Amino acid sequence: MSERDEQPAGEQPAGNTAGAAKQKTALTDCSDATVAELVTSLGGKPFQARQVSHWIWKHGVTDFDQMSNVPARLRTALAENHRVHSSEVHKTDLAADGTEKLLLKLHDNDTVECVIIPDGERTTLCISTQVGCPVGCVFCASGMFGVRRNLSSGEIVEQVLIARTRMQGERRLTNLVVMGMGEPMLNLDGLLPALQRIHDPDGINFGARRITVSTSGYPKQMAKFAEADPSYNLAISLHAADDKLRKELVPTAANSVAEIVTAAHDYFGQKNREVTFEVVLLAGKNDRRIDANKMIQVLRDVPCTVNLIPWNPVSEIVAKHGLGRPTEARVDAFADSLRDAGINVTVRRQRGADRSAACGQLRLQTLESSDA
Ligand code: SAH
Ligand code: SF4
């Protein structure tokens, strides 16, 4: 396992030019006030700072040279110590159903995934918050090798800008889910400013009601997240209502199911938004009648929806832990039990099923192929 923690071969910094570029601050990581200070310090006017920001957030440009109404002298001066974006598309993977995974290369050659998921009129973008994940859920590719680092707010926002540019002319982004690599509650310092920028009418101008953040359950951080204005949707990855079983699936879980459910209640109380509980169903592990019954007991009085997610097999994990995807009949039976008890249930259809479908898999494959 540990050899995968090393910088993958073939993805080393490429010489001096890349080394020098690495030092440059990305403007996606700068506040408007910082950009204004920067522009005026370089002899520009405040309105030119607004033009620069407009190019970044409204037009999604990635190069100063594309900012055609900004004087060339100012563009050159800006480019001296800054760049617009710090990440770029490294690999893409398009599934037959239109789901497209983007593997983004960061300034330090680490990689993260984001996924564009078209579904009828809707187009959902799934974004990451960390390189890897420290939580280590046994079924998840993102957590297999731990966490390398948090993403900066700019790196989080760039995923939206890059995906939006990629879809241009074809589709409009309708939903944003923070369900990619990493545990969002463990990087609130990066996430909250990023969401602010994504929501801001002068930024990306994306409705907060269409943004959902998923956590594997950190009540303290959820309380802090609840203080954010505007209000975002919260999804909690529960997986099991029994503490012992949950701890088997989420080995680092420090909070009990009861504490997590209380946090969901609190979120509803504060925001008047129902929480979604996600349950990744694993054959014979947490998809049994007894598991459904326990979940009914725990969630009966919670204003919520339960989203059942049949596990997307990750071959390395199948080999190591012997986990499996449940049959449709088992998933339906689980859903019916909850529904009969009056709980709202949705079942997630598999998307991008033909290739590296699950969270973290494209990165995993890339790490493996460059390990040789
Ligand atoms: N760390 C956060 C958000 C990222 S994971 C969290 O765990 O909620 C987003 C969702 O994808 C979680 O519900 C997670 O359980 C689920 N997931 C991870 N790997 C999966 C897989 N192989 N198949 C199906 N769902 C998976
Ligand atoms: Fe981390 Fe979420 Fe994967 Fe668990 S499911 S390892 S919390 S990304």
What are the SSEs and their pairings?
Layout: H1 15-22, E1 25-26, H2 32-41, H3 46-57, H4 72-81, E2 82-83, E3 88-94, E4 100-105, E5 111-119, E6 122-126, E7 130-132, E8 147-150, H5 153-167, E9 175-178, H6 188-199, E10 211-215, H7 219-226, E11 233-237, H8 243-249, H9 257-271, E12 275-281, H10 289-299, E13 304-310, H11 315-321, H12 328-340, E14 344-347, H13 361-369
Parallel strand pairs: 1-2, 6-9, 9-10, 10-11, 11-12, 12-13, 13-14
Antiparallel strand pairs: 3-4, 4-5, 5-6, 7-8
Helix pairs in contact: 2-3, 5-6, 7-9, 10-12
The structure holds S-adenosyl-L-homocysteine (SAH) and iron/sulfur cluster (SF4).
Largest sheet: 10 strands, mixed
Helix content: 25-40%
Number of helices: 13
Measured by DSSP, the beta-strand proportion falls in 15-25%
User: What would you call the shape?
Assistant: elongated
Radius of gyration in whole Å, from Cα? 21 Å
Q: Secondary-structure element order, as H and E?
A: HEHHHEEEEEEEHEHEHEHHEHEHHEH
Distance between the termini: 14 Å
**Bound small molecules, deduplicated:** S-adenosyl-L-homocysteine, iron/sulfur cluster
Lateral arrangement of strands in the main beta sheet: 3-4-5-6-9-10-11-12-13-14
